[in-house]
Amino acid sequence: MRAAKPRSFVPVALIVGLVVSSLVPGGCDCDPEPIDVIRCDFELATRDGDTFDFGSVIENGGERSTSVVITNTGNRPLNALTPTFSQNGEHYRLEIPDDFVLPPDEEETLLLVFAPTARTTLNTELSIGHPPLGAQACPVRTITLRGEGIEDPAGEGEGEGEGEGEGEGEGEGEGEGELPDDTILLGPDAKWTAYGGFEEARAGFAVVTLLDGSVLAIGGYGENGVVLDTIERIDPLTGRSRVVATMAQGRAEPGAVQLADGRVAIVGGRTSRSGGVVVRTVEIFRPNDEVLECPGSQPDGEGVCGDNSRGLLPVGRINPLVSTPGGAEIVVALGRVLDGDAEVAAADAEILNVATGVVTPVTGLAARTEEARLIDADGSFLVVGGRDDGGRLSNALARFDAGTRSAGGVAATLPAVRSRAGIVRLDDDRALLVGGVGPAGTAIGEPLLLEQPFGTTTVSPLTVATDPRIDPTVVLLADGIVLIAGGLPAVSRVEDLSVLPLASAEVLVPFGASGFFRFAPDNDLAQGRVGGQAVVVGDNDDAVTFLGGFATSPRLTPHPHAEIYRLDDNAFSSFGLMGAGAAHIAAALPTSGAALVAVGGVDPHTGATSSRTRAFDAENGLFLETAPLAGPRRDHSATAIDVDLVVVIGGRDATGAVTSTASILDVNGVDTPLPVGLRRARAGHTATLLPDDAGLGAGTILVCGGVGGGGEPLDTCELFRSPTNPRDGGTYGTASFSLVATRMSLGRVGHTATLLDGGEVLLLGGGDIERAQGAADLFVPDPADPRLRPTAIPGRARREHAAVHLGGGRVLVVGGEIFSGGLAPTATAELYTRTTQAFAPLPDMESARQRPAAFLIGDGNVLVAGGTRTLDQAGFPSIGVIESEVFVAADSTFEAIELPLSYGRSDLIQVNVFGRAVLVAGTHRDGLVRGGLEQRTPQHMVDMLEDPEPTP
């Protein structure tokens, strides 16, 4: 017990006598004194403040104690303190001496003892009062006490054995742990499958639109410079893509064309981003049965297509121009070849008959690269501008005539040299040249009109200017309307000064004989693009789908995103879900019993806070719109209280202000604001639905932490109690928010809230991790007195980690961000055990991960995926982790597994969608760009864990 300040005791009778004598006339022979107003007041605290946790008492008859400090802040002595306990008082005692008197401005330390006689949670509130002093009432001061009743020694209790070492989690009851109803299975053939984009990030690929409207994406550059050997087949109207074939060798920047019989010929490309070889072999893809074959003089089976020395083409070409005059013939022209390790422009062409293997050379095409290409329906083509084999810019036009099988120059020339422009054939006998690099090495914004590109060609400028763009995407839509999108704003040839592709777009509408009217779409691309592909789709050519591409240039960072522009809406739309700040929840839709719903957040096309909600139908692999919110909201929480009813709480409104409002969203109906709101406006908080058996009522949600209106981390929690009938708006006045009486050990942002057995919630991490570690907190859902109390202190101060309840009160904590001389992702992990209220360190994960995903799987192990780790590479401070690993509960170790994500993903959100592990949102770390900032490409597609043959 802490020693009290030195003091002298004064008899109460003498004090009273002095007071009376000062008030009675003649009581003293002295000058009149001012009237003395009695003030009765005091403060009360334990050594840890206004909340103290005794923890557990191990054996019968055991006791734990602490000191209680009472400070007299009034102006009269206190001598008759009256302690009372709200409940469980028989397990506590406050020792007050019989002669206790506390003068003004003094403090006294008293002994508070916890002596449990029951084996249960024994929380209480100690209130101390004092009788009135004269006519002056005295206050009542209260502190909160926590304590666990008698606990068996570790390892000796029935079903409680959750200590470390052998036998952890054995036996009956809590220690055994129950698997969740929505069990996630990790079968032997499991894989993460992408929806809303390519399965593999790719750029520099070839694209062919098939007769059924689907699109083939062939080869290209993948993650981390890998050259892809896969072919994906994507539905450009739904954004659903699947790898359907694997080529004999990887091909970056290949060429491809569909033959008259529907098959697809694939030629050229390079096998490595640097070095490697340029491919001379030809592969034929059959769309009907999705089989690859080797044509012509390569008849002797598999493996021949992978032997470059036996290729049909005399020369391999990178990014060749490929067309077909008909039948089994293809024209392979221009492109680039390797001169040692350097790429140089290639000249001329070959006509290859893929049925016979016969090659016919075509001369007369000067070496050209970075040229604009226009291909006619009969296989003829026109190339415009570019650079010659010496790297010099050109203003020349050249043409191949499929009818005469001849090539040569065109009399017409451009007004000035130009390379890396976009070109499109208009409905009439004209073409439009847009953007590019001019003689000064800067982007060009003056379009040119080419009359009769396959006849007597003339070139003239347009009267309307476009935004300067290098390598823009230019496509023709219905009614002669031209969409121009993406590209680069400037040339950058040093990777440390990479630039971001443009996300903006513009539309040219024809009027009069040769005029165009320019206007902008209502929004932008969600992702700036260069090096991708665009495919016109829709029954009336009224939409265009953008596929893949690079996120930075000249650094080659490919992405898998797909999005669509619809002319009727004059707007872009991602196939995936909403962007940053959205809340995600599993819900049931009329079209599907299993869906992931993204509620609000940032519209990826406008950057504005949105009221939209979008759903991923996990059964059918489709994205669709659902009921919108009543108003824009981001950084909020969404908690399902039924399969289609979601409570939306807090966050930020359209102005960015932190809000206290709440609503109930029927994902199949409307969003209805509630007449009640948070007691503290907050954003970035956690919201945990408590089970009915917690005793606090059906639909009760624990809301904790986040930031307040001034950006401060909040240390408070609130309980939301649902209305008596959440499906009846007339009962919404019965909903309520109430502050939990006690506070967390620290303000928490970037923390986790993990639901344990019986409705307890472990609140861990967040806050200022650069300071000393604070205790984790435990929410105890006592129906009469729901409270927070400190529990054990974690081994690491961390935030943006993942926490998984393994069952029986054991919580696995993995990764996050820590401070160790600086902020960095961590590979550390630890295990919290409820019965011992202790954290124990675990071996490190295979990879450091900040904001990873972690799922409890059916065998009791935990699947960990994604996140961010640091990267010791110039220009790349961090990288999105693509690898997965498993925590093996039996021996508390981590094991790497061959289960990569479709794309390296940082800052992940994870949702168990009724037994389906789904990853959503996050970013891809693209490295430093101009200005020294790290580019983080937002993710809108989802990854879902699938197994063609799941284990039973």
Report on this model:
It contains 1 helix and 72 strands. Among the domains are: 12-148, Immunoglobulin-like; 197-363, Neuraminidase; 463-574, Kelch-type beta propeller (Neuraminidase), CATH 2.120.10.80; 798-952, Neuraminidase. The protein starts with 11 loop residues before the first helix and ends in a 6-residue tail after the last strand. The radius of gyration is 36 Å and the shape is elongated. Mean pLDDT is 88; it is low at 1-34, 152-180 and 297-302. It is mainly β and 952 residues long. The relative contact order is 0.08. A 4-stranded antiparallel β-sheet has the order 1-3-6-5, with no helix packed on it. Strands 2-8-7-4 form a 4-stranded mixed β-sheet, with no helix packed on it. A 4-stranded antiparallel β-sheet has the order 9-72-69-68, with no helix packed on it. Helices cover 1% and strands 38% of the residues.
Q: What is the compact description of this entry?
A:
With 952 residues, the chain is an all-beta fold. Among the domains are: 12-148, Sandwich (Immunoglobulin-like), CATH 2.60.40.10; 197-363, 6 Propeller (Neuraminidase), CATH 2.120.10; 463-574, Neuraminidase, CATH 2.120.10.80; 798-952, Kelch-type beta propeller (Neuraminidase, 6 Propeller), CATH 2.120.10. The chain has a four-stranded antiparallel beta sheet with strand order 1-3-6-5, with no helix packed on it. Strands 2-8-7-4 form a four-stranded mixed beta sheet, with no helix packed on it.
